[in-house]
Design goal:
The protein has 238 residues and is α+β, with helices and mostly antiparallel strands. It has a single domain, classed as Glutaredoxin (3-Layer(aba) Sandwich). It has twelve helices and four strands; from the N terminus they run βααβααααααααββαα. The chain has a four-stranded mixed beta sheet. Strand 3 and strand 4 form a beta hairpin. The protein is globular and about 40 Å long. The two termini are 29 Å apart. Belongs to the GST superfamily. NadH family. This is 2-hydroxychromene-2-carboxylate isomerase. Pfam families: DSBA. It comes from Streptomyces sparsogenes DSM 40356.
């Protein structure tokens, strides 16, 4: 379904974003068929080393600092969204987060056939238990719960081969797919950003190809320029 005529469906997930967590829960709870069909791609804010690697390949990470007003709104909005879904939320406190710690650890979990279980457990640790998932000890605990090698997952951020291989490839893929924020979904040429766009993405995936060749992307401003601005709204984070 998701790969017919090259119309690959992808979900770019992120452990930092509460909206990505809400979209994950909606995808799993309301649209399990689509959750099974899509490709799951990690999206994270690289540290200085990750940005250097991207720059060496002619890419930059789209980032705009969030205003205080937007941050306060998100706190209110996410509580509202979580309450409507019957989800309890505990806000974590991030202190000098290194997002490679939880996101790069996804790859060895995926290789072991436990990618979905890892995603579920890390989301739960962060948004329902209020734990610091950028602490390698927390990731080691998750690995132990899943029967995975704790040292391997906890040390993923320090694995040069992983960073410069699959990690860098994942970061470079963001630009190719135009994934400027999260949660982000793509089906063929169609892009969807934010929790409120998930139903449209689901409809697109379930409908499959509509006949003929896929339409080319619409004309518009330069993609790099478009990604440099903060187009934030309630359904997604940059």
């Amino acid at each position: 379904m998701a790969r017919e005529r090259g119309r690959v469906a992808r979900f770019y997930f992120n452990f930092r974003s509460p909206y990505s967590w809400i979209a994950y829960r909606d995808l799993m709870d309301r649209y399990p068929d689509v959750a099974q069909a899509v490709e799951w791609r990690p999206w994270w804010e690289p540290d200085a080393d990750g940005e250097r690697l991207m720059n060496e390949h002619g890419e930059t990470f789209p980032y705009t600092p969030m205003s205080r007003e937007k941050h306060l709104y998100i706190l209110q909005d996410v509580r509202r969204l979580a309450r409507a879904r019957g989800l309890d939320i505990r806000w974590p406190v991030d202190q000098d987060p290194v997002w490679e710690v939880p996101h790069l650890a996804y790859f060895p979990a995926l290789d072991a056939g436990l990618g979905p279980r890892y995603i579920e457990r890390v989301y739960r640790a962060r948004w329902q238990e209020g734990r610091d998932i950028c602490d390698p000890a927390v990731i080691a605990g998750v690995a132990e719960e899943l029967g995975l090698p704790a040292d391997r997952l906890a040390g993923a951020a320090g694995d040069r081969e992983l960073r410069e291989g699959r990690g860098l490839a994942a970061l470079l893929a963001l630009g190719r797919d135009g994934a400027f924020g999260v949660p982000f979904f793509r089906h063929g040429y169609d892009r969807f950003w934010g929790v409120d766009r998930l139903p449209a993405f689901v409809e697109s995936v379930r409908a499959g190809p509509r006949g003929g060749a896929p339409a080319p992307p619409p004309p518009g401003p330069d993609l790099a320029a478009a990604r440099s601005a903060d187009h934030g709204h309630a359904g997604g984070c940059g």
